[in-house]
């Protein structure tokens, strides 16, 4: 940018676009803002201006270097103000980016050259350098291309970068966390991130447009509301002071869990620009940079809330990102499907998925990591009960021992799984081939679909029917003692509620197969603490009214219509029915209670677009849907009927394991690495 003054006006010339900007005296700036207030622009191939000899000046200026392709994908990923004042850059894109000639500055010195560990950052790679000037206890770091374009910026309050400040929850895309436990320069931040992060670090800049209103969208991927009353934002013009989010239009002071806030920038956003978001302490929360044209109609995260940015086809401000674009903005990240492979064994014949439906409107993107790992051996669960008995249907972590994952397999099998070399395998000390289960008295073949661990440590399994009479529904919940010896297990107690569902008793095996698909144990302590109103009394739930039911209730999911049915299972074999809860989905395939989010989770497979509905107790004491998430984008669209999230005691780097099971072990179909596998492993926020 060149600048001259003539006749009381400031005249500025941009070398990259050959454009003069004539600014009124009150709006003069040494470097021109990308906000367009008070500036008139005149662009042409050549100019003759009265009173100013331009030709000779222009001829003396060197041509500005062009910004490298995909420069906007480079993010500051970690920084320390201790010792060497080291900075780490990460490339979120799919192509290498040259950083030759790039510079940096803080809040007190002009841009300086630095010496990176490499002049090129590979896709998904890191580059580190030591700051040529010291970084303070509270400071600001700005990265520029060789032509002076701002790439990224991060700020921290006193001691926020000691020992380091780093992005956690995903290199280049995660939220900034101050005073992380350890530095990990040149490698993934995972090992240096804390096991849990503040709710504010779940907030992301999710979409931005420089097309018209210059609108910014924030998204809260956490499980609690976040106050933004004192938060600020600024663009890439280093002469600008941050503006208040709450004073922008429309005004907003908080973001609900799983919700959005949009506001129009009061400082303007340019055709190529940045937005930097700061919390009430002055620490950076998030940032985004886009090249020319990439924010028209908008630049959006793909997937919603977690991935990197791409240019959209249609702006979706205030709702989940469509991710229907693909141009510019880094191309978006969809994650990787890792692991898998192997040959099918005898008796292992995957079934193609059936009943696929669309994802309901309002469903949010998966809030955890984008990558998913196939976490079992091919055909690991083939059994003797026919061609359909090769899959897994229900999953549940053992809350007393989270290194154990229980799995129900139809037909009539129960597995105790443990981790070995990153895979879930049968616990050989319990049974290397699983244990077959029977109905009370040792009869029949339960069509076992769902399971949960009760407050007494016993395993409770649901069955839709007896597979020896598969046209007749037999919707039961069976209690098994996992410490029982032998290769076959029989229930301690069994509760048969088939008479409550006459719509399933039509003589059709298909209708009989639409009964209880999942079950979740919900502790009384959660129900009482959240003010659940007992539908039998109309008053606050009092567990003492039901002395034989144990320490919690059981929520069984009905595939027929997506409802949850609540039962108190009494020690004398009787039961109390507490009514029905609508999940808002067409079906339910698994149910769990997650103490981490304090929510009941009802899972629907491809019938509902692979969704997980989180339910809460509302202000009126009723259990209602709160928020719904879909699976990570990289996963196949199959009959994924099992789902479980590990307890928060297992949290590492702000995440814990989430697992899915495939009822048909189809994966992406024949010849794919996922064909013949039943278990997928990903991550969910702590």
Walk me through what this model shows.
This protein has 686 residues and is mainly beta. The strands form twelve sheets. Strands 29, 30, 31, 32, 33 and 37 form a six-stranded mixed β-sheet that branches. A hairpin with a 4-residue loop joins strand 2 (9-14) and strand 3 (19-23). The protein starts with a strand and ends with a strand.
Question: How would you summarize what this structure contains?
Answer:
The chain is built from three helices and 49 strands. It has 686 residues and is mostly beta strands. The strands form twelve sheets. Strands 29, 30, 31, 32, 33 and 37 form a six-stranded mixed sheet that branches.
Features:
mainly beta, elongated, single chain, five-stranded antiparallel β-sheet, disordered N terminus, 686 residues, six-stranded mixed β-sheet, 49 strands
The N- to C-terminal Cα distance equals: 47 Å
Percent helix, as a range, is under 10%
Mean pLDDT: 86
Number of strands: 49
Give me the secondary-structure topology.
Elements: E1 2-6, E2 9-14, E3 19-23, E4 39-43, H1 55-60, E5 74-79, E6 86-91, E7 97-98, E8 103-105, E9 112-113, E10 120-121, E11 126-130, E12 139-144, E13 150-156, E14 165-168, E15 175-177, E16 203-208, E17 215-220, E18 226-227, E19 232-234, E20 243-244, E21 254-255, E22 260-264, E23 273-278, E24 284-290, E25 299-302, E26 308-311, E27 337-338, E28 372-374, E29 394-398, E30 401-409, E31 413-420, E32 423-426, E33 435-437, E34 446-453, E35 459-466, E36 473-480, E37 488-489, E38 493-496, H2 509-512, E39 516-523, H3 524-529, E40 552-558, E41 563-569, E42 575-582, E43 590-594, E44 599-604, E45 611-617, E46 623-630, E47 640-645, E48 655-662, E49 679-685
Parallel strand pairs: 27-28, 33-37
Antiparallel strand pairs: 1-2, 2-3, 3-4, 5-6, 5-14, 6-11, 7-10, 8-9, 8-12, 12-13, 14-15, 16-17, 16-25, 17-22, 18-21, 19-20, 19-23, 23-24, 25-26, 28-49, 29-30, 30-31, 31-32, 31-33, 34-35, 35-36, 36-38, 39-40, 40-41, 41-42, 43-44, 44-45, 45-46, 47-48, 48-49
